[in-house]
Amino acid sequence: MARFVVLKEEKELYVRILPIPEHIALCLDMGIPTTNIIAMHGPFSEDLNRAMFRQYQINTMVTKESGEAGGVLEKVNAARNEGIDLVLIERPRLEFPQKYSSIDEVVRLVKTL
Length: 113
Hints:
The chain has 113 residues and is an alpha/beta fold. It has one domain: Rossmann fold, CATH 3.40.50. It is built from four helices and four strands, in the order βαβαβαβα. The chain is globular. The model has no long low-confidence stretch (mean pLDDT 90).
């Protein structure tokens, strides 16, 4: 997030972070005003994402590819449906013999070990 803070001089910058005191403190240390810090625990529905986009008049969203657990599909769909420009930061592609995308898959695997 620190790399994006330079944008606050040219753009209205809002951050949505987990409500963890250290994360909030980092935002404040970077000069992000409290009115621009949205500290909530997700994932969020498409409707809630859309409501937040409208409430804060968001026109561009930068988000990491957080997968199903992080609600990335809901964020992407909300951005598209609201006509918001979307920048998706892709996860690094790592090669491992076993990869899983859900906790349920991991639980099933661990039960067999």
